[in-house]
Amino acid sequence: MPVRIVRLGSPRAPNEGTRIGTVRRPPRGVPRDQFAAQDWYDAWLPNLAPSAEAVKQALAAHSDAEWAEFARRYRREMAEPDRRHLLDTLAQLSRQANFSVGCYCESEARCHRSLLRELLAQAGADIRED
């Protein structure tokens, strides 16, 4: 029962399970009781999102070198004990339950979810490649 890495707001896949938002802010203009119904997320886990400063850095990254600097920063943030424990917990759950994690960004290549995919894999998560 692998974890899926998804774009929040996209249609759910069959048997996707609980969708977890790893974003700093809820979707704008969407009533809280509509988050799940509109395929944003069922549960919110902002501790796996980049810090506000790192988000600014990622949005300003226009070169590969700037993106790489953001990636290093995000990996350092995710190495903090409380965040590392969350990654380890999700890795364990990926072997027992259907769920997904995601962000709003259109392209995974320039989104923290690409790095989150790597970090979860390093923690031993079973990740579904779609």
Give the distance, in angstroms, between the N- and C-terminal Cα atoms. 13 Å
Helix content: 25-40%
Biggest pleated-sheet summary: 4 strands, parallel
Q: So what's the overall shape?
A: globular
Q: Kindly report the average pLDDT value.
A: 95
Which strand order spans the largest sheet, edge to edge or round the barrel? 1-4-2-3
Number of strands: 4
Estimate the strand proportion: 5-15%
Please count the helical segments: 4
Low-confidence stretches: none
Structural class: alpha/beta
* SSE string, helices as H and strands as E: EEEHHHEH
Radius of gyration: 14 Å
Kindly describe this structure:
- The chain is built from 4 helices and 4 strands; from the N terminus they run βββαααβα.
- It is α/β, with parallel strands linked by helices.
- The chain has a 4-stranded parallel β-sheet with strand order 1-4-2-3.
- Helix 1 runs antiparallel to helix 2 (64-78).
Describe, in short, the structure shown.
With 130 residues, this protein is of the alpha/beta class. It has helices at residues 52-60, 64-78, 81-93, 112-122; strands spanning 3-7, 18-21, 43-44, 99-103.
From the structure above, extract its key features.
alpha/beta
Task: Map the helices and strands.
Blueprint: E1 3-7, E2 18-21, E3 43-44, H1 52-60, H2 64-78, H3 81-93, E4 99-103, H4 112-122
Helix pairs in contact: 1-2
